[in-house]
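Subject: for your reference before the review

Hello V.,

The reviewers asked for a structural picture of the protein, and I figured it would be easier to keep everything in one thread rather than splitting it across files. Below is the amino acid sequence we used in the manuscript, unchanged from the supplementary table.
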Amino acid sequence: MRVLIVSTAEKTGGAAVAANRLVEALNNSGVKAKMLVRDKTTEDITTVQLPHRWLAQWRFLWERWCVFCHLHFSKKHLFDIDIANAGADITSLPEFKEADVIHLHWINQGMLSLASIRKIVKSGKAVVVTMHDMWYFTGICHYSRNCHGYIQQCGNCPLLPGGGHEGDLSAKLWRRKRNTLQNSSITFVACSNWLAGEAKQSRMLQGQKIESIPNAIDTHVFCRRNKQDARLRLGLPQDKKLILFVSQRTTNVLKGMHYLVKAIDLMVKQHPDCVNNTAMVIMGGQAEAYEQQFAMPVFALGYLNDTRKIVDAYNAADLFVLPSLQDNLPNVIMEAMACGVPCAGFNVGGIPEEIDHLQNGYVAACKDAADLAHGIWWTLFEANYDQLSANAERKVIIHYSQHAVALKYTEVYNQAMALKNYHL
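And here is what came back from the structure prediction:
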């Protein structure tokens, strides 16, 4: 079986990382897999870059310009919206022709257009789509936040100026997307049970086959290491409890950093002595923006793309916190748990599927900074920490290992090929 995994980026962003890991997991399990990307950053021979790099860049800029215009030249939601009006035709590429299964992942920002997807669907190939967010069943957004318009049909979009209107851009794209996806033999896969449930509610995917398979992780890379050595390599203190926050872009409102700031402030007010024995570690773009905002010492690592340093950051931590306001199945929680680090987060999206409350971490009520503060304190100073750590590591090995995930996807591919042959 030959599988072509299509992704905008090779390793930049959570969805790209997940797709890249799946390629490795499949190849290690006997499935011949390649990755087709717009943005290639390694020399990996299993990853192929789109030809004509300048043309790919033009598609990206054209789509962003169109979004910018629809936002009345405001940057506020410029990267919260994708309209798929520009993209490559990959059906003529040799990698496409030789594949038995075409597996689409996060393909926005000029990688594939709706017309590109339509051509892929009509090519006669078995098609699988992994949904890393809600874009495949909404009009234009990746996360609906508090909007439920996608269930019946988008319109009056809160991301558009003035809240949009009944026939706005989101409504038009919703109809175009539904015309592209309906009556197709696509198998959709969600990375969490939460996202699968949201997808099944949307009329966009009514009648489509929807599965739920978590992302894979290499537990030989992300695993427990010596904490003192990891701290030494990163220049972090040896004598403090370290709380880690990780995000590709730390200022992303949906990652909930302001709730973490408030939770730490509450914890310090309740337990003033913790200022002397506890510190924050922030990894991700614009991390330095928060150096003065916490009521305890902060160590900003910035954006890291060296896997060894990333693994060190997890192993240096005593607790990983991700207070996302809406999220699928965050790789960062999985990575932290694989390194034996208990995690805390809000009861949203797929987070409670990863964190088992009071077993390998703490699940706080959504947007409740006081509950999050309690969870942080409980994990660090009251719980049986060694047991939490062991449970976190065990959870990843059982549910998210490469072998377990590759087996599930192989079954999906076989079913997709059978479904394609049935329709033929």
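For the response letter, the relevant points are probably these. The first strand starts at residue 2 and ends at 9. Residues 103 and 128 are 5 Å apart (CA to CA).

Happy to draft the paragraph if you're swamped.

O.
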